[in-house]
Amino acid sequence: MKKFTGIPASSGIAIGKAFVYLEEDFPEIPRYSIRKNQVETEWARLLKAIVEAVEEVQVLQERAVREMSKEQADIFAAHLLMLEDLDFQDQIKDRLRGNLQNIEWTVWDISHEVALKLMSSPDPLFRERAVDISDVSRRIMDKLLSITRFSLADLDQDVILVVHDLLPSNALNMNKAHVKGLVMDMGSRTSHTAILARAFNIPAVLGLSDITQEINNGDRLVVNGGTGEVIVNPGRPELARTENAISAFRKMNDDLLALRNLPAETLDGRRALLKANIEVPEEADQALRYGAEGIGLYRSEFLFLTPGKTAEEEEQYEAYRHVLKTMGDLPVTIRTMDVGGDKLLPDLQGDEKNPLLGWRAIRFSLAHPELFKTQLRAILRASVDGNTRIMFPMISGVEELEEALVLLEEARSECRNLGYAFAENIEVGAMIEVPSAAMTADILAERSDFFSIGTNDLVQYTLAADRGNERVNYLGQPCHPAVLRFLQMIIDAAHRKGIRAAMCGELAGDPAVTPLLLGLGLDEFSMTASSIPQVKRIIRGVSMEQCRVLAEEALRSTSYRHVNSLVTGWLAEHFPPA
Questions:
Q1: Are 295 and 281 spatial neighbours (Cβ–Cβ below 8 Å)?
Q2: Distance between alpha carbon 353 and the CA centroid of its chain, in Å?
Q3: Which residues are bridge partners to 184 per DSSP?
Q4: Which of 137, 206, 488, 538 is the most buried (most CB within 10 A)?
C-alpha cells in the first residue's frame, strides 16, 4: 500500500480500478518514393485502411446514439460521409499517381492542404469541416501506421482516471458515467479541469507531480477529493474505513440538502444570494436540486470547445434558451466566451509564449467582432425566455468595457433588423479579475450594472503565480493581504455606486471563507452547485456583526498564513466538528 497527497480539487470519495491514460504524440509521417508499379499496392492499402476506419466510426456512432447526444452522434455521421467521399478518394489517387510518394505521406499532404484552405475561409461551416478532415485523416493514418489509440469517450467500465494532464475539451468528451474519480500529475484547485470535475461531481486530486509513474493499470485506488489523499492498493482495514467514510459523506450531503428551500440569511437578518456556476446546459437542473437562486456564472466558452464543432448562433441560442427556461424567473448570468489560456479554440488560436497574459477572454472577442456579435445575438434572442444578465470577462479597463458595450448595441440593432424579439432591460456587468480592474473599480462601476469578482484569475494575476503550475501552487493564496485589500476595494466601489458585488471564483464556494466574505460586504456568492448547502449552513449560523469583526481583523493581518489560521480557527470555534 502507498499513500500520496495532492491538491483536494473536487470533494467526494471513490474506490475503483486505475486507468492510466497517457496521450501519445503523433509520430513523424514516413515519406519515400515509390515506383509506378507500386501505385496499386499503395492504393489497396488505403482502401483497406478506409474500411477499417469506417467500421471503427460506425461503432462510435452507434454508441453515441445510445449513450450521448444527437450532436455527438452527428459528428460521427459526418466523419462517415467523409471517409466514403469518392471525390476525396479520387484526389488522393490522382496525387498518388502524380507524385509517386508513399500513401501515408500522400494522405497527410492532401488532407493538410485541404484543411488549411478550409481553415482560412471566413465561413465557420468550412472551418468546422477543416477540423473534421484533420480528424478523419488522422484516423486513416492510424490504420496505415498500425497505431492503436484510445478515446476517453470509449470507456465502457468504471475506472479511476489517472492522467498527466487533461484538457478541458477531453474532460467534456470523456464518458463521465464511467469516470468515478480523477487523479492527475498537473493542475490546481482553480484549474479548469478541477472546475469541470466539481461540476460533474467526480472526486478529484490534482497536482501530484508524477503519480502517473507510480500507478499501474488495474491498481485498486482510493481517492479522497476532500483531503487530497490517494491510496494505491489499500488493505482490507483501509477499504473498510473508506466505505464508512463514503456512507458518512452521503449522509452529510443528504442532511445539507434539507436546507435547499431555506434562505441564505444570517442570524440578524442579512440576506445573501447563493447561485451556481455551470459549464454545460444540463447542469441547470442540478443547480435547482441544490437550491441555487440563479446562475451566477454560465461559462459559455465550453460550447466552443468540442473538437470538430463550431458553436453557431442557433446552437448557442438553443443552449442559452434551455438554461433560461430551466431556471424560470431566476436570474442567469451568461459570461461571454472566455477562451485562451488553457481553453484554446484550435481553428482560431495559435501558440503564444504566455497565453495567460495574452489573447484571451474579452481581448479575443473584441478582435473577432463578428464572432462576438454572433454570441451576443444568440444571448439576446434567448433573453425572452428568462431572466438574463450578460457579463464580460477579464475587463482590464473602461476602454474594453465601452468597446464591448458598443458591439452589444450593434447586436441589438441587428436583432431588431432581423425581427428577433429580445428583453430590453438586460443587466450588463463586468468581471473583476485583474489588478487594473480592481484598482479602477470606481471607474468601471459607472458603466456596469453589477460586478462579479473572478477570484481564480484575480489571485493568479495579483500574486504572479500561474494557477496551473504545480511548482508555484503554494503562492496562489486567496487570503493574501493584497487579495483581501482588492476585494474590499471592489466591493466598496460597487456599493458606493449602488450596484451589487458578486463573486463567481472558487473562493465563493469555500465555507471556511464565507464569514470573511460576508464581513467584507459581498452580496452574491456563485459556486459549484454542490457547494451551496455547505455555504448556506454557515451563513444561517452567523451574525453580520461577528463577520465584520472577523473581516476587520483579517484586513489588519500582514500575512496569508495569519489570515488562514484566523479563518480556520474562527470556523472551528463557531462550528465545532460533530
A1: no
A2: 22
A3: 163
A4: 206
The number of C-alpha atoms within 13 Å of 265 and in the hemisphere containing its C-beta is 7
Q: What mean pLDDT is reported for the chain?
A: 88
Cell of 518: 460576508
DSSP for 295-308, please give it. EEEEEGGGGS-STT
Count Cα neighbours of 238 within 13 Å in the Cβ-side half-sphere. Answer: 18
Tell me how far apart the alpha carbons of residues 114 and 281 are, in angstroms, rounded to a whole number. Answer: 34
Q: CA-CA distance, 204 to 197, in Å (whole number)?
A: 7
Structural domains present in the chain: 2-21+153-254 (3.50.30.10), 36-144 (1.10.274.10), 266-574 (3.20.20.60)
pTM score? 0.70
**Cα–Cα dist 147/545, whole Å:** 65
> Dihedral of CA 364/367/369/370: which sign?
negative
**DSSP summary character for residue 387:** E
User: DSSP characters for 58-121?
Assistant: HHHHHHHHHHS-HHHHHHHHHHHHHHT-HHHHHHHHHHHHHH-B-HHHHHHHHHHHHHHHHHT-
Contact 27, 147 (CB under 8 A): yes
Over 50: is that where the pLDDT of 308 sits? no
The whole-angstrom separation of Cα 543 and Cα 519 is: 9
Helix (H) or strand (E) holding 16: strand 13-21
- How does strand 220-224 pair with strand 13-21? antiparallel
Catalytic residues: 192, 504
Distance between CA atoms of 418 and 255, rounded to whole angstroms? 51
Neighbour count for residue 16 (Cβ, 10 Å):
19
Tens of pLDDT, residue by residue over 322-336, are 999 999 999 999 999
Give the Cα separation of 393 and 451 in Å (integer): 11
Sheet holding 204-206, edge to edge: 2-5, 229-232, 220-224, 13-21, 159-163, 179-184, 204-206, 7-10
Q: What is the pLDDT of residues 102-115, one digit of tens each?
A: 999 999 999 888 88
| Cα 85 to Cα 140: distance, rounded to the nearest angstrom | 13
